[in-house]
Amino acid sequence: MGSRSKIDLAYIAGFLDGDGSLMLQLKKRTDSHRGIRFMATVCFYQDSRHDKPLSWIRDVFEVGYLSHRNDGMTELRINGYKQIRTILKSLLPHIRFKKIQAEALCIACEILCRGTIKTLKKEDLQRLVDLILVIQQENYVTKRKKTKSELCKILDLTP
Prior knowledge:
Layout: H1 6-19, E1 20-28, E2 36-47, H2 52-61, E3 65-68, E4 73-79, H3 81-91, H4 99-112, H5 122-138, H6 148-154
Helix pairs in contact: 3-4, 4-5
């Protein structure tokens, strides 16, 4: 990934704390054995009239894609377990308000880098469910999220 000074990382961490989100989700997928996949996302948001910092962040990390939404906002989305793990490890010393979510997502990405839903141990999948719930609990959400029992059922972790 691109050149990053401590000052740049501190600025980006502050941006994430204020205008970003960290997500770990179970998504439906038709091309996999189980029909689901984990998706880890780091997202930065900015009014489209002032979206240059998002391009700069993308250039610093050399990953992610920008999208202009219909509501006048632009977002920089970064997906991929390895990329997110690397980015969060570099930002964690500077993150203040979203530290719990960042640490949880970093742990989840470590687990997800070890295998697929099919090859991960039951204990790993249960840990991932717990990490989803930690991130959800710390995030501001406007719509209902899945409960632990719903997530466990989706992953066949119910007795």
